[in-house]
């Protein structure tokens, strides 16, 4: 049964490659992320005795495959070979945001780096377990400072976006030095996650960097692409070292074999976990897991008591069925927890429709407006990171901030417009 999602996603990948003129672009990359995860699932199931741990059944695999089909289809409207221009409307405000985020991001790096060094200098495994169990909150005493810098850290994609904008020739004031600065500042997310004894920050930062490279590579000269690759390598090597260090401390006690298995499990457990979770019938969270701030918005505004989600009781339902709660089950699993099987598919459909809308001008006219670009970046982040779970559950104010920026640029019309165009490789 585990072959079903592997074959479905593999077929979707091939189908999109045909639609995209056999170019490996951003949507190719999105589907390939999930395909790679499913290949790891298959290897674990066939060669590492995971078939003894998981009883894979037909219905969960069909639902899982359907959920992925639903969310991918909306992205299929985006075709890299049709995108010729990026329209930067309200360039003055774009430049204002670029300047404003620099000091805040620098402050956030210093703040989280200090805390990261503190928790990583001790027993990493014990510190991680304490954080996961809610027994330790190393940043809790920082209060509002932690909240502000956490928002800044979650906005690291803006720094990464500005890094690539500064590599294009048409962007006002573009310089490679500024691009490198913004790329360095984008690592704030790595330090942010490290401060909570996590390694996800390295993975998500790397995934985002590849996305932006694929999106912008045709808008940047070969010379600047070479500069970008060197800069990315300079930052990626220490990031990978940190990732491996944490992994070794947490999972490498039995040697290299245990570490390799742990890394493969990290990448491929999702579909297997989803199967078991699908077969359990917990009470619907009704948004309390992935969208708690939205669910409790009335209480924030009116000062009433928020609706309480009984986390312990929810966990116990899974434990009573011999299933481990709070494991990776992908975006499909996260939405199923909150809205049920039908509601989960509806939530995935909404994401798909938004992706379809963000790509409308690309397909019809060969350009994308800055507001739509921000929306597309956000949706790509949600779905690509969703190969693990709905990661933005704790980043509500980050989502609000990006939505506010999108709205502002959407309402700006074509004021102070700058157009970025693809590089003519022949003339270059």
Give the helix/strand layout.
Blueprint: H1 3-19, H2 26-47, H3 58-75, E1 85-88, H4 91-120, H5 124-132, H6 144-154, H7 156-165, H8 176-186, H9 188-194, H10 200-216, H11 222-251, H12 256-268, H13 270-278, H14 292-295, H15 297-302, H16 311-320, H17 330-358, H18 360-365, E2 367-369, H19 370-385, H20 396-411, E3 418-421
Helix pairs in contact: 1-2, 1-3, 2-12, 3-17, 4-6, 4-7, 4-9, 7-8, 7-10, 8-11, 9-10, 10-11, 13-17, 17-19, 19-20
Q: Tell me the domain tally.
A: 1
Output the number of helix runs. Answer: 20
Major sheet summary line: 3 strands, mixed
Helix content: 55-70%
Q: Using the CA coordinates, give the radius of gyration.
A: 22 Å
Relative strand content: under 5%
Q: Roughly how many Å apart are the termini?
A: 51 Å
Number of distinct beta strands: 3
Shape: globular
Tell me the structural class.
mainly alpha
The average pLDDT score comes to 88
Transmembrane segments: 6-22, 29-48, 60-79, 100-122, 142-167, 179-197, 203-220, 232-251, 342-358, 370-389, 395-412
Protein name: O-antigen polymerase
Keywords: Membrane, Transmembrane, Transmembrane helix
């Amino acid at each position: 049964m585990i072959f079903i999602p592997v074959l479905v996603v593999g077929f979707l990948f091939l189908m999109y490659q045909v639609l995209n003129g056999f170019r490996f672009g951003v949507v190719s990359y999105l589907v390939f992320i999930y395909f790679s995860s499913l290949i790891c699932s298959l290897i674990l199931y066939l060669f590492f005795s995971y078939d003894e741990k998981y009883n894979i059944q037909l219905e969960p695999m069909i639902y899982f495959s359907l959920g992925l089909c639903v969310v991918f289809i909306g992205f299929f409207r985006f075709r890299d070979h049709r995108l010729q221009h990026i329209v930067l409307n309200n360039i003055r405000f774009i430049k204002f945001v670029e300047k404003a985020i620099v000091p805040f991001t620098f402050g956030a790096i210093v703040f989280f780096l200090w805390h990261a060094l503190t928790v990583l200098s001790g027993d990493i495994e014990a510190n991680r377990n304490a954080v996961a169990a809610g027994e330790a909150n190393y940043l809790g005493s920082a209060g509002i400072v932690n909240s502000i810098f956490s928002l800044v850290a979650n906005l690291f994609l803006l720094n990464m976006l500005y890094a690539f904008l500064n590599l294009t020739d048409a962007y006002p004031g573009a310089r490679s030095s500024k691009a490198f600065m913004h790329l360095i500042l984008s690592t704030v997310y790595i330090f942010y996650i490290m401060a909570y004894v996590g390694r996800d920050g390295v993975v998500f930062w790397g995934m985002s960097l590849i996305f932006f490279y694929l999106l912008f590579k045709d808008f940047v000269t070969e010379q600047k692409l070479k500069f970008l690759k060197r800069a990315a390598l300079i930052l990626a090597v220490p990031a990978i070292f940190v990732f491996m260090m944490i992994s070794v401390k947490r999972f490498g006690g039995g040697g290299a074999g245990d570490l390799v298995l742990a890394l493969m499990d990290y990448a491929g457990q999702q579909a297997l976990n989803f199967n078991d979770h699908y077969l359990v019938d917990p009470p619907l969270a009704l948004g309390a897991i992935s969208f708690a701030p939205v669910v409790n918005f009335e209480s924030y505004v009116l000062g009433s008591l928020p609706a309480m989600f009984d986390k312990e009781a929810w966990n116990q339902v899974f434990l009573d069925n011999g299933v481990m709660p709070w494991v990776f089950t992908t975006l499909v699993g996260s939405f199923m927890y909150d809205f049920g099987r039908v509601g989960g598919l509806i939530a995935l459909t909404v994401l798909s429709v938004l992706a379809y809308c963000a790509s409308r001008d690309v397909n019809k006219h060969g350009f994308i407006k800055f507001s739509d670009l921000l929306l597309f970046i956000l949706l790509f982040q949600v779905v690509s990171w969703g190969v693990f779970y709905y990661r933005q559950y704790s980043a509500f104010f980050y989502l609000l901030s990006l939505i506010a920026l999108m709205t502002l640029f959407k309402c700006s019309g074509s004021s102070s417009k700058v157009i970025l165009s693809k590089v003519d490789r022949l003339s270059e």
